[in-house]
Structure formats: structure tokens, C-alpha cells
Amino acid sequence: MDGKMCLLAGDAVDYKGFPADKSKTGGWVSAALILGIEICERLSTMGIAVNLVTYLGGTMHLPSSSSANIVTDFMGTSFLLCLLGGFIADSFLGRYRTIAISAVLQALGTGMLAISTKLPQLRPPPCKDVTLETCEQANGFQMGILYTSLYVISLGIGGLKSSISGFGTDQFDEKDEKEKAQMAYFFNRFFFFISLGTLLAVTVLVYIQDEVGRSIAYGICSVSTFIALLLFLSGTKRYRYKKSNGSPVAHISQVIVAAIRKRKYILPSNVSLLYEDCPEASRISHTEQFCFLDKAAIVAEGDFEESKGPASTPNPWKLCSVTRVEEVKMMIRLLPIWATTIIFWTTYAQMITFSVEQASTMERSFGDFKIPAGSLTVFFVGAILITLAVYDRLIMPLWQKWKGKHGFSHLQRISIGLVLSTIGMAAAALAERKRLSVAKAIKNDHPNSDLPISVFLLIPQFFLIGSGEAFIYTGQLDFFITQSPKGMKTMSTGLFLTTLSLGFFGSSFLVSVVTKVTRSNGGQGWLADNINNGRLDCFYGLLAVLCFINFGAYLLCAMFYKPSASKRVVQMESVHDASAENKC
User: Fold this and answer.
1) What is the distance, to the nearest Å, from the Cα of residue 314 to the centroid of all Cα atoms in its chain?
2) What average pLDDT does the segment 543-569 reach?
3) How far is CA 277 from CA 29, 283, 313, in A?
4) Transmembrane residues, as ranges (predicted)?
5) What is the secondary structure of 278-292 as a DSSP string?
6) Could you report the per-residue pLDDT of 92-108, keeping only the tens digit for each?
7) How many CB atoms sit inside 10 A of residue 576's CB?
């Protein structure tokens, strides 16, 4: 009987709703099928994002700052919709169905984009001259079709990204030491494989866009997503599914409403007098932080609803258990770390907008081959892959032997990412200053040709920000999934992905403010339509300063972060401490 129980995967069920058998469900095979659809999602998303700015400027004839903001708004909306995707997955559809439907939306959106870039009626006529002033900009109808395609894709991205990582971790049993160790490697390998998708996007896909045709490239994205969906559906019988505990938004709202209703009540001196109805094994220990919310667990007259059964049930909008209150506290504790990681993604946004524009003005020849400007981000992706490989194969085993832990903690990885991004923006400012000096020196002699300065000057900024992403993405993903309540993991993943969203929107906001302020005297400002006439180095310098200030704020938040522990963990730690005292 015990042997049979060991084959069951905790609180997971199979596709028929029976307890999941470990020998037939879950594990790396199931995780690989899930990762396949994420690779295609990243192929489509990054294939569009890294080269869209050149399409908006070169084909749709939009100004530089407007093109950059359209790209960052598209990416920002995509990640913001992860909150909606997480809510739908947790409350209604479940992760499996959310992934399937979102993949269909992604395939449809990229198909629409392929058509919109193919038909000549959906773009303005080519320029008669090389200067932007003589070009006819895209009209409202043409931009409307483009926006519709992009935001259908955004809906798909929101559903996929909010659910894939959580559904992937569902394939491993945290109570099984062997599978728990596999899960520790899952976060790094998850990001490693989706970075392979990005690598294909910025090399093969960007090359196809520039040399063969954008419609062909976007059509490939649509078809590959559909194939990945079929592979994903083929694993239906192999997956492990976690039952939903209801809407996390409703649970959070209930605790807040109940606490406000009882704001005038006095908390009992003995915590055991607070209401608790969760099973002993799944309870979360009471903590002193945010004690105002504890009032939601004070038992008062009228809190219980009459029922026909032997026991009355509490009205969740008037009375909440200590565990439910602690779940809300856990989510609140995530917010300071959440807020201080947003700035990284603002710096990241520059790598797919202004850095690509920088590359388009520089000498990009490699022998007889001319590197597409969008493909320069291959160094960015290469940095991610190298960093993850070194961390996975070298640092993690050494750290295991030295400290007995599976690599750096999530907070340590985030801090490393923030430091690298600060140095990366400083390097970007220096590189841009050098590029501008060359542009000004030959302005009158070569107004329309590439600047005689190698594009490889931009490698340091791509490499530093790419390495930073490797640390911060895996650190954030690990932090938000492992430090959130069980029933809110999809929502917490969506919360993590909103840092990307707000980072992109923050970039758009910062670009708009800087453009308005620096053009106040009638000049072209820091972010001119032609970046050779602007001061992009000052903009990068501003970002480096903001990153440095933000890192100080992050260190303070990390120092004061206190994770919650379940009753079971607390009891195990107490037993361990008692054993240690006896040995002494």
C-alpha cells in the first residue's frame, strides 16, 4: 500500500481526474512538450519585436521615437495581459486549456501580421527620397490593421506566458526529493530553451525578414506555433494537472474586505483564538507583519451562514482563516521585490529599439556578408545562453559542494542581474558617445552611408544586459513561483511578468518625457528622428543613474524580506533544531 502511495504525485491528477501516477505522468518528457510551445512563442514574439522598429521606420515611415514606443507598447501590453491570463487560468479554464486557446490566438495573430505586411494596400508607397520629410506616413487604416494583428498576438502571449512555467512545474512533485531537484534545474533549462527560440528569431527569422520577405517570416511563425500546439495536445494523457482553488483575486478581496469591516476590533493576545479551518498539513504559520489583515480572522457574531448540514460555514467576506490571511500577506511581501525589478526591463527595452537603430547606422560587414541590424541581438541571446550554461554546469555543482545549495538564491540572482544592467547602460552610453563623435566628424562628407565604425562596438552593452537577463529572469521566476501560495502560482507568474510590462511602458513614458523636455527650446533633443543628430548617450547615461538608485532600493527590500513557512516546515525545523541541541 505504501509503495503504491509513493507512486502518486501529491495533489496532482491525470487527465481523467484520478490521482496522477508518477510512472505514467509528469517528469521531463511532459515538461519538454510544454517547453516546445514556449520556444515557438518566443520565436514569434522576439522575431517581431527585435526587427519591428526597422519596419515601422523604413516601410511605414514613422519617426524614430514613435517607432520605439510602438514596439515597447506592444511588448508592454503583451506582458500586462499575463495578469488576465493568470486570472482566467486560476479561476475558470485551468492552465492546460489556457495554453491551448492562447496558442491558437498567437497563430492567428502572426498569420494576420503576415498578410498585413504582404499586401501593398496595407502600407504607404515607397519614399521618393532618402529623407524622412518626403515620405508619406502610414494612414490610420493601415496602422489599424497592424495594431489589430499585434494585439491579437499580445492576447496569445498573455495566456501562454502566465501558464506555461506554472504548468511546467506542475509536472514535478515538490514532496519527492528526486523530482524536487529536477525542478531546481527546470527554471534554468526553461529559460535556456526559450532563449534558443530567441536565437533563431534574431538570426534566421530576421534574415528571412530582411532578405526574403516579412510575410514569409511571419508565416513561418504562425505555422510553427500551430505545429507546437499539436505536439502539446499530444501529451494530454501524460500531463499532471493541479486542481484550482478558486479565484485568487476573490480570495485576496475577501481578506481585505473582512479586515476593513472589522477594523475597529481588537486583536486577541493569543493567536490561537483566530479562526482557522485549513487541514494541519497545509496551514501557514501566523506572522506579525501586516497585522491589520489579521482582523479578518477574528470570529464575530454573524460571521457564519446558516446551512442545512451539521456545521455552519463562514461567510468568506466576513471571516477568513489565518492561512487565507497569510496567503495574502505572502503576496504583499512580493511587491517590494516586484517594484524594484521593473527598471531592468526598461533597460532591456533599449536593446530591441534604440540599440537596433544604432546598429543600422554602423558598419555591419562580416566578410562579404552584411549583418542585418536586428540580428545584432544575437550577441544578446548568446550572452544569455553562455551565462545559463556556465551557471548550470559549473556554478551550480560547485555551489552544491561548497554551500550544499542548488546555486545562488533567487534574491542573489536578481541582484546580480541588476548590477549587470547598470554596468551595461554605462557601457552603452560610452559606445554611443564614440559613435556620435564619428557621425559628427563625417556628417558633411557621407550623409547617407553607414558610419565608418564597426557595429561590434555595441557588443559590451548587449552582452552585459543579456547576462543580466539570464540571472534576473530565472531569479524572478523562481522567486515568484516558490514564494507565492499554492493556489496563486499562476497569478504570481502573471505578477512577475507585469514587471516586464511596466518596464516596457516605463521605457515608452521615459522616451516621451525626455523627447518633450529636451526639445523644449526648438531643438531636436536627445532622441531626434535621426539618432545621428541626437544625444542618445545622455539618455543611456540617465538610465544608468536610475539603475544605480534602483539597485540601492532593491538591497533594502531584499534585506527586509521575510518568507512565510507552512506549519509542516516549521515543525520539521523545530525537530531538526531539537536534534541538533541533543547532539551538542
Assistant:
1) 37
2) 83
3) 38, 9, 10
4) 70-89, 95-115, 190-209, 215-233, 334-351, 371-391, 411-431, 451-473, 494-514, 539-561
5) S-GGG-B---STTGG
6) 888 899 999 999 999 99
7) 10
Domain map (residue ranges) of the chain? 11-128+135-244+329-562, 248-320
* Residues 280 and 321: beta-carbon distance below 8 Å: no
Give per-residue pLDDT as tens, 254-279: 999 999 999 999 998 888 888 888 87
How long is the chain? Answer: 584
What beta strand segments (E) does 270-391 contain? 304-305, 313-314, 362-363, 365-366, 369-370
Angle between helices 410-441 and 536-560 (to 10 degrees): 170
| 351 close to 377: Cβ distance less than 8 angstroms | yes
Write down the H helix ranges in 235-341.
Answer: 248-261, 322-339
Question: For residues 461 and 351, is the Cβ–Cβ distance under 8 A?
Answer: yes
**DSSP 8-state symbol, 19:** E
Assessment of whether the complete model's pTM goes beyond 0.70: yes
What pLDDT digit, counting tens, does each position of 156-199 carry?
Answer: 988 888 888 778 888 887 777 777 767 767 766 777 777 778 78
Helix (H) or strand (E) holding 11: strand 8-13
Cα Rg for the chain, rounded, in angstroms?
A: 26
Average pLDDT over residues 39-49: 84
Query: For the stretch 525-548, what's the b/e string if a residue is b when 16 or more beta carbons lie within 10 angstroms of its beta carbon?
Result: bbbbbebbebbbbbbbbebbebbb
Residue 484 amino acid letter = S
Which H or E element spans position 70? helix 64-88
CATH number assigned to the domain with residue range 11-128+135-244+329-562, chosen from the 4 options 3.40.50.720, 3.40.640.10, 3.40.50.1820, 1.20.1250.20? 1.20.1250.20
Q: What is the DSSP string of 97-165?
A: HHHHHHHHHHHHHHHHHHHHHH-GGGSPPPPSSSSGGGSPPP-HHHHHHHHHHHHHHHHHHHHHHHHHH
Q: How does pLDDT run across 140-168, given as a tens digit for each residue?
A: 888 899 999 999 999 998 888 888 877 88
560 sits in which H/E element: helix 536-560
Given the C-alpha cell 527560440, which residue does it identify? 197
Is 123 buried (19+), middle (13-18) or exposed (0-12) by CB count in 10 A? buried
Half-sphere exposure of 227 (CA within 13 A, CB side): 9
- Residue with the three cell numbers 522598429: 53
On whether the CB atoms of residues 472 and 341 are closer than 8 A, the answer is: yes
